[in-house]
DNA sequence: CGTGGCCTTGAATAACCTCAATTAAGGTGG
DNA sequence: CCACCTTAATTGAGGTTATTCAAGGCCACG
């Protein structure tokens, strides 16, 4: 399952990418191998066909480009098909806070609903494909299909709960705990998508990690090095191998032994 | 408008409280003076009567008691009629993070939707009344009334956006900036409910403020004292008067002069 | 009037940040 | 394909901010 993405993830050269893109670019949700992540389960074929209409179009976003930015009028949610994003807010004086990293199967754009305008930027950290889901479609189909309605509510609630954990991280934890939690969360999400539980290639810089975790890039780097020195992980630039996940969990929560 | 709450807010002795409670305890949303805060606007009388059924019951929560706690099964959202709450999450080793403070007209319990169980605690910081809105009612009526559906989505999106700002606060700002932002936010929300824009009585301890803002109670206290010394505010325990709101805004964002 | 909880304040310490120099990696054009 | 250039990551030294630990004051309540 999801092995196509595995290949995609490992090989970043354009040829392979095109190959995989063609292979995975199905037209409809009903044929999408990420359906279980984006969409509710337990639909019959007929309903599923109707649900396909929730996605209006696809958009391809190049690495470094914005999917949407602060102030843009909100019309659609976006389901990530391939690629990786960060969302961030910034102050007038230029300080930036990364509010999240999103990968395939995750939904972005929820921030725009409240005011009909986006309040953050979504930046592609690698070449990405997204499914554009006009929010009016989402709402219309939600009224028709209680299962979809519940699903949308769960997605928003999940985001609220995630942000609660980040607040805990930022408010109560020290640098190394934050990085441990970050790595464990990342690898867990990747594993749910069919990737390794122990190896990963970071898609973001030390500075972006630091912004997310409320610390400076040097502090992030030092924490990586420390984990490396202690044999908990192997680090080489953006490649990370988790050698001793138990120790990492122990750092994240000292009470949790093994 | 909302003057009943003004009285309630100022006088915390039980007699007055009972008096006000009786005065404001209307049965239905249609007759509630907080309707504009909790409910969508622009309904005709007929629809409004149907919307009244979203609230099943009332619950009174004594100061210090829990409305719900981590692990409780989720069935309902709660609209605060009177009173004040904090929500908080905690780690196994006992560290607590306040994730928000909620006042009249605000909705709590959204964290429970994703897993059908609450993932945080909601504690009354004063004797409070809440409207219990079974989530199945909310979803059912949302399917019937697009305006309500949109309203529910906006409430969840607003919470996501709020938490984004808190992440900015925790990740990028220094102690005094955080406290300035906190006070400005609090007084702005109180003002929207008919209270003073310059005076307030804090319902939470220094420790709870500190937990929310990611700092220790001593640091909170020092920041209060510093603002007091500089004549920006007057502080006496939990009473705070904002004397120079412009300076407070300037601290919050140095670029924003006046 | 005494007690306990909350708040304030001070001094010493630790954690993280800033500044700066060095090294490594990736991209580009010859 | 390689040298160069640019960007990202690492590491060290010193400074700043917030924390920790501790003592004393204020206030509400019995």
3D structure, described in words:
Two copies of one chain form a homodimer. Chain A folds into two domains: 19-146, Jelly Rolls; 173-251, Winged helix-like DNA-binding domain superfamily/Winged helix DNA-binding domain (Arc Repressor Mutant, subunit A, Orthogonal Bundle). The two termini of chain A are 29 Å apart. Chain A is globular. Helix content of chain A is 44%, strand content 21%. Chain A has a four-stranded antiparallel beta sheet. The first copy, chain A, has helices spanning 3-10, 14-24, 35-38, 45-51, 135-144, 146-172, 175-192, 206-213, 217-229, 245-252, and strands at residues 57-61, 66-68, 76-82, 84-90, 96-103, 107-108, 121-124, 128-134, 199-201, 233-236, 239-242. The interface between A and B is large, with 50 and 50 residues. The structure holds a DNA duplex (30 and 30 nucleotides).
User: Strands of the largest sheet of chain A, in order across it?
Assistant: 1-8-3-6
Q: How many DSSP-defined strands of chain A?
A: 11
- Average predicted confidence as pLDDT of chain A: 88
Major protein interface: A-B, 50 and 50 residues
Report the principal-axis shape of chain A. globular
Structural class of chain A: alpha+beta
Q: Which architecture of the largest domain in chain A would the CATH scheme give at its second level?
A: Sandwich
Work out the helicity level of chain A.
Answer: 40-55%
Q: How many helical elements of chain A?
A: 10
Low-confidence stretches of chain A: 1-25
Could you name the CATH topology of the largest domain in chain A?
Answer: Jelly Rolls
- CATH H-level homologous superfamily name of the largest domain in chain A: Jelly Rolls
Gyration radius of chain A, rounded: 19 Å
Largest β-sheet summary of chain A: 4 strands, antiparallel
Question: What's the CATH class label of the largest domain in chain A?
Answer: Mainly Beta
What's the multimeric state? homodimer
> How many domains make up the coordinates of chain A?
2
Strand residues, percent of chain A: 15-25%
Reading the helices and strands of chain A in chain order gives HHHHEEEEEEEEHHHEHHEEH
CA(first)-CA(last) distance of chain A: 29 Å
